[in-house]
Design brief:
210 residues, mainly alpha, 2 domains, two-stranded parallel ribbon, globular, lipid metabolism, transmembrane, CDP-diacylglycerol-glycerol-3-phosphate 3-phosphatidyltransferase activity, CDP_ALCOHOL_P_TRANSF_CS, CDP-OH_P_trans
């Protein structure tokens, strides 16, 4: 008679290659993205150029766009070249959250985004991150399609709102509202999945030896 495995389930998660070195190009791009965050923040909070051309704003847009592109590239490289490592699986979401989180806070600081939008999105991200840690012994919750859509919408919205062009900023704001709605809905979906994973794991946990 077979017994349920006590190993964590991996729901769609990319498997780690134990032979891949952490010193690879995919992880290098992830680290680069993390290092770009303080540069991006400084540019975004920097005073506009005295000639009125908003050079700092355009530079902040360029840095954010480059960081967002590296997010796509490093993931594709890691999967296509079998370079998925434990470091990358930890560092990549940290880089993503640091970039988007800092962008939301800075946009609120400069008055382009209401604080309640920033608080709702960041609170959801923090809650889901904590939930992932709680249920990780029972399984790994991989990113869903809704979660990926949320990330795309957030990135596009931030990029639009960084451009010092008023009509584009307004479009970005409404994309951000849509991103917030998707963020909340996917957050609730993750909570349901986490609850099912936790309850199933508790049921299947081997009874203590007597």
């Amino acid at each position: 008679m077979s017994h349920p495995s006590s190993a964590p389930r991996r729901t769609g998660a990319t498997e780690v290659n134990p032979e891949a070195s952490a010193w690879n190009i995919a992880n290098g791009l992830t680290v680069l993205r993390i290092l770009m965050v303080p540069v991006f923040v400084w540019l975004l909070l920097h005073d506009p150029a005295p000639d009125g051309q908003h050079l700092a704003a355009w530079w902040s847009f360029a840095v954010f766009a480059l960081a967002a592109i590296t997010d796509r590239i490093d993931g594709d490289l890691a999967r296509s070249r079998n370079l998925v490592t434990n470091f990358g699986k930890i560092a990549d979401p940290i880089a993503d959250k640091a970039l988007i989180g800092s962008a939301l806070v800075c946009l609120s600081l400069v008055g382009l985004l209401p604080w309640w939008v920033t608080v709702v999105i960041l609170a959801r991200e923090l809650l889901i991150t904590l939930v992932r840690f709680v249920v990780i012994r029972y399984g790994v919750m991989a990113a869903s399609r809704g979660g990926k859509l949320k990330t795309v919408l957030q990135s596009v919205a931030v990029a639009f709102m960084l451009m010092p062009v008023e009509p584009v900023v307004m479009v970005g704001f409404w994309i951000m509202i849509a991103a917030m709605v998707v963020t909340v809905v996917t957050g609730l979906d993750y909570l349901v999945d986490a609850w099912r994973l936790w309850t199933r794991g508790r049921r299947e946990r081997p009874a203590p030896q007597r």
